[in-house]
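Supplementary Data S3. Sequence and structure tokens for construct A.
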Amino acid sequence: MRVGMSLTTDYSSYDDVRLAGRHIVERAAAANRSELDSLFVGDHHVTPRPYFQNIPLMGRLLAEWGDKPAGCLFLLPLWHPVLLAEQVGTLAALAKGRFIIQCGIGTGRSQFAGMGASLRTRPSAFEEALDICRRLWAGEAVSSDGRFVIENARISPSPPQRVHVWMACSIAGMDRAARLGDGWVGMPSTTVDGARKEIETYLEHCARYGRAPTAVALRRDIFVAGTEAEATDVLEEAVAGGYRGIAREALVTGTIDQVADRFAELAAVGATDILCRHLITDQTKVLASLERLAEVRQKIAAV
């Protein structure tokens, strides 16, 4: 099993956005020191609170990262595919390792309205955008008269190696994920039993299309504590605050051994990757947790 980092990019609790920016960079550097297996940032738009946008942020974070995979989530219906393909081509050229995009269909009426996109046509826009991006990354000149009207578009630089595409979705999107993606990313709110059902469903769809996924990833909100008492305090505070609406049993807190055991449970139901996001904002505690996560990764690597 691989252990990666999905960095928090919503910093609504910070009054100083420059401090928030420095903290994101520090966390990426710490993830690199801990030799984590991947680094990702998210995608959200027209937010009234500080949310660091993925493309400029990843460009900065690649300077702190090594040669392991890195990438961004993109809510494809909200992006013009030529612009997205150009940006990914440049990021992939800057990255020392493979660039991976996580693709989501997107939700939220206000987000779509603010970006001038249609909720109703998201499925077809998603598939068309992905097809255009892949053709552009392959060096083709692309024209289209579908949802995106494009004439003889080309991009440069092209990614130096094939961009892998992981689909972020629930069971409702599994057929599309198996048909079009290289891998799948599950939600952080799923319990172990829920993850088992989702992974089984995804792999059944993959088998039907004769596809072998390169990743079956689960996002988890975590904290690796120095003591059991510290882990309990962090968990209770998060639960009391209704943390992101995520059920208590889906949150992962504990000592190094306890977190490794929780990750092993997820490996046992078929997960190949755990993408970690910290459920606290205290920078000192986050950096300490990241340092301990290196030991968790070592314990779980052989699973």
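Construct B, processed identically:
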Amino acid sequence: MHEGVNTAMESARRDEAVEGLYDPSYEHDACGFGLIASLDGVPKRRHIDLALDALKRMSHRGAMAADGASGDGAGVLLQRPAAWLAACAADIGIALPRQFASGLVFLPRDVSQAQASRQKISDAARESGLIVAGWRRVPLNLDACGPVADARRPHIEQLFVAPAAPLGDAEFRRALFVARRRADMALGDSDAGYIVTLSADSIGFKAMVIPERLPLLFPDLMHPAMASTCVIVHQRFSTNTSPRWPLAQPFRHLAHNGEINTI
């Protein structure tokens, strides 16, 4: 947040009267937010490494469960890592067209429920003029996931979609948005399925783990081909709800630094 805004807020807090056990001077908590961006626009592995290091340094901004591994939410949002996406597609035997989108999806751990959710997402994509090119099971190192987080952990897969017929770039982005909204409505509840990201421009990884364990949980984040020009990181959950995997940040387009609720 801009220094002038912070200064004004602190001044306002000092002017507030202390009432009972509450003292406004205690109000210094905020989510940890970071941004690493390349001025030359060249994707680099180093940008992700810097962002993950920044995320680790903001552990104090969030909460840790008694198991020492579960957290109240940590995540990264990357600008499209094209080389890594191509490698993932090759792993599952699909050839990607020029236009495609990919993103992580949280699914139920029950096999039949997960299949039903996949079908609803596929139907939503088809109704929006898209085709599902393939599903990839996201590799996870569950040793990095504490018991509290693991008890609520979804099954995580990666979805690839493409246009059923040639579309302009703007039309493709609209189709992706409509498909995701249709899927949200068909699923009805995030426990039945939650699309973390489905974009031609970005991809997100997030979990209920402490920041230093995020790249351990998702080995994909350490893949040599994983490179980006821009990375957003976020540590800490919504302050008004109990932690849940779908509510971890960054969201699909942004993250906040905690002062929204304070203001």
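DSSP finds eight helices and eight strands in the chain. Residues 1-9 have pLDDT under 50 and may be disordered.
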